[in-house]
Structures are given as structure tokens and as C-alpha cells.
Amino acid sequence: EGLLAGQVAVVTGGASGIGLATTRLLCQDGAKVVVVDLDPEASQAAVAELAGAGHDVRAEVVDISSEESVAALARGVLEEEGRVDVLVNNAGINAAAMTLWDTPPEVFEKMWRVNLFGTYLMCRAFVPTMLEAGYGRIVNVASVAGKEGNTGSSAYSSAKAAAIGLTKSLGKELAGTGVICNAVTPGVIRTPLAMRTTPDHIQRLAAKIPMGRIGEPEEVAEIIRWASSPRCSFTTASVLDASGGRTTY
Ligand code: NAD
């Protein structure tokens, strides 16, 4: 019945914020969803909510920045499900605002490991099965920070810019195979991650939004839902914006 009936979707960071909103919509569209998240409690809560509503969903507690963990995850998912049609690389982290020269190497490296390297590992693990099937949809959640660069955000902004570059390369490499790869760039969205930075910082960011407000996770998830579906058929290696008019490219 649903647009994604019979399909299997993997959503990283699917237990919170934009990822949870995405998990809900993909479930509504009939997909079986594997939530991949570091946080066991949030994962359990997400599964309880959605399985309770009759959806086919389970969680794997995995650190996407670990090569071994991602390899084990891919083996397990492919063994159990036999297919992956949709991969949403949404898991990400941010840090408190700090200048580049105040950013310790560990912070810089961690930001790249999760926001960029994790996305690379997940794509590398799941693209082969999509190629075999001749069908797949990959959506990488980047950020407007990757387009504009935010003050006090050199590690995050650069990792998100790199995720956009990865999406463009991979989308072109896969063009014509039936596997499509796009990025989504949210602006400021009301999620636990965004709310962890200072209210002052959020207000400064919100002031730059032409629509005059921050976004809701569901408003980003709707774009991911489309890009995860067969309805997205002639758009690949593209960057889809969800920022209330803040970035227009
Ligand atoms: P969130 O913190 O609400 O959710 C992120 C989820 O990712 C959490 O459940 C967390 O446990 C999980 N996660 C973190 N590191 C992980 C790892 N190494 N392995 C597996 N799971 C991990 O955040 P959100 O705001 O919903 O962010 C989702 C994505 O959207 C992120 O990539 C973020 O950078 C991006 N984004 C968010 C905003 C915003 O304003 N909220 C803006 C632009 C981009």
C-alpha cells in the first residue's frame, strides 16, 4: 500500500530529532526501518513508539564512526533483511561554538569522524548491495553550515562541506545504476542537537532566516522522505535545502 512497502530503510541517528522524524515518515510509507544509533535508551523509546503503532522497526546500537562496527552492522542487516533500499545518513554531532584556534585537535577530528567518515563508512558498506539490486536511495544529511561556514564552527562546517562533496561524487559515480544519492542541508532545526548550543547563538542564527523562524524536524524529514522514494528519479548528486530561505543554493 505505502510508497515504500516491502522496502528496507536504514536510518542513522534515527532515534532523535530529524532522524526520528524521518524514521516515523518512512514507517508510515510502509518501509521496514532499522534505526542505527549510539543511544540505547533513545533507540528503545523510538522502537517502542513505532512498533507499538504497528510498524516494522528495530534498532541497532552502533557507532557509525567505527569501521568494524559498521562492517558488522552491514553483515547483520544483509543477513537478516537480504536487502537495503534506503540509506539515510543522518547521525551527526556538533560542539559548542569556538574559534578554529581554540579548537583542540581531538574535537576537530571527532567532528570529522562522525559527520564525514561515518557517512563514508555507511555508504561503502551498503552501496554494493544496492548496485546488485539495481536500486537504492541514499540521503546524506549535511547542513547549511557546510555551504556558508558558521562562525565558531570550523570543524563542523568543514565536515559538512565535505559531506556535500562526498554526495556529489558518489551521486555521479552511481548515476545510471538505479542508485541515487542526494544531500539535504537543514538550517536551524528544533532538535536536541541544536538546542544544546547557547540560546544566544540560536537567536543569532534564527535572525538570519528569511522565514523568521527556526524549522521543525518534520519539515526536514519530508524532504528526506521524498529523496528516499522512487518518486525521486531524476535528481541525484544534488543538495536539497531546508533552511527557511537562508541559503538559496
Ligand atoms: P540529534 O542530536 O537530535 O540526533 C542525532 C542522533 O545521532 C542522536 O540520536 C545520536 O545518538 C546519534 N548519533 C550521534 N553520533 C552517533 C554515532 N557516532 N553513531 C551513531 N549514532 C550517532 O540531532 P539532529 O539535530 O536531529 O541532527 C541530525 C542531523 O542533522 C545531524 O547530521 C546534524 O548535523 C544535522 N543538522 C542539524 C541541524 C539542526 O539545527 N538541528 C541543522 C543542520 C544540520
UniProtKB/TrEMBL annotation:
Molecular function terms, GO-annotated: oxidoreductase activity
Keywords per UniProt: Oxidoreductase
Pfam families per UniProt: adh_short
Ranges of residues in domain Ketoreductase: 7-189
E.C. numbers: 1.1.1.-
Lineage top rank: taxon: Bacteria
Keyword Hydrolase among UniProt keywords: no
Homology family: Belongs to the short-chain dehydrogenases/reductases (SDR) family.
The protein's name: SDR family NAD(P)-dependent oxidoreductase
Organism, scientific name: Nocardioides zeicaulis
